[in-house]
Amino acid sequence: MTKLNTDETKTEFAARVGLTKGRISQLVADGLPVQPDGTIAIAEGLSWMEANLDPARRNKGGTPAPAASGTLSLSEARRMYMVVQVQRARLAYDKERGQVIDAKEAAAAIFSRAKAERDSHMAWVSRTAPLLAAETGADPRATFAALDRFMREHLEHLSDTPVWSLRDAG
Fold it and tell me: What spatial distance separates the first Cα and last Cα of the chain, rounded to whole Å?
């Protein structure tokens, strides 16, 4: 397994965020944090850029606010483009660090887990019904039918419950 590099040279960082090395040097002069060895910590650099290149911050760095008519100045459009580049770089960095998951893989894993849990619950009914019938002296078929019905109703109720409400209830 390769070690993830957390620091990059100005040139590497510039390539990551889609800017020139000269523009990175300008941003360093404006406060972009640099390590003592001249490299840039990726996470800190991206955070600084997200905070300081926000197009919502009017007159930042001498850039005039957009006109009230809704049109953007060229400098404001460039600033917004840079913000998008930084956000994409942040996403790519988070993916490199394993902090981003694929939505399709997550959905498949959740479906697989839910199916396994459903099968486990149904197997429990098959294992428990004869034991319960023997312990209570009840008819094994009637006991199985009742437990099976109750378990299916319970699973149906769970399937109607959104996942996020289960998370909030715990």
Answer: 36
- At position 48, the amino acid (one-letter code) is W
Q: In this structure, how many other beta carbons lie within 10 angstroms of the beta carbon of residue 16?
A: 21
For CA atoms 67, 70, 75, 79, the dihedral sign is: positive
Give the 3-state secondary structure of residue 8.
strand
Task: Say which DSSP state 30 is in.
Answer: T
The answer for residues whose C-beta is within 8 angstroms of residue 81's C-beta and 6 or more apart is none
Which of 101, 89, 98 is closest to 40 using CA atoms? 89
Task: Note whether 31 and 48 are within 8 A (CB).
Answer: yes
Q: Going by C-beta distance under 8 Å and a sequence separation of 6 or more, which residues neighbour residue 76?
A: 55, 63, 64, 65, 66
In tens, the pLDDT along 72-85 reads 777 778 878 888 88
**Cα 33 to Cα 133: distance, rounded to the nearest angstrom:** 71
Domain boundaries, the chain: 7-96, 103-169
Helices (H) and strands (E) in the chain, counts: 7, 2
Residue that is written with structure tokens 């019905």 in the block = 149
How confident is the model over 36-50, as pLDDT tens digits?
Answer: 998 999 889 888 988
What pTM value is reported for the model?
0.46
Chain mean position to CA 4: 19
